Amino acid sequence: TDGFVTAAEDATSASNNFDSLMASVIQIYHKCVAFDNEVNRLFPNNTDNSAKKEEMKDYFVKHVYNNRE
């Protein structure tokens, strides 16, 4: 029975853990989509620009890396 849900308490815990995991996955997805949109805005047609790279880095740090929402 190792790894299987065998009691009501385990089922509740597994359900809560799954819900928490799914919320995290959804949050990561939204952050990735927003970051991709920002990259596309800063680098249309795959242009290379050092100033835009710094702006992208700042966006990533502020809205992805340090954002705990």
From TrEMBL:
<protein>
    <submittedName>
        <fullName>Merozoite surface antigen-1</fullName>
    </submittedName>
</protein>
<keyword id="KW-0477">Merozoite</keyword>
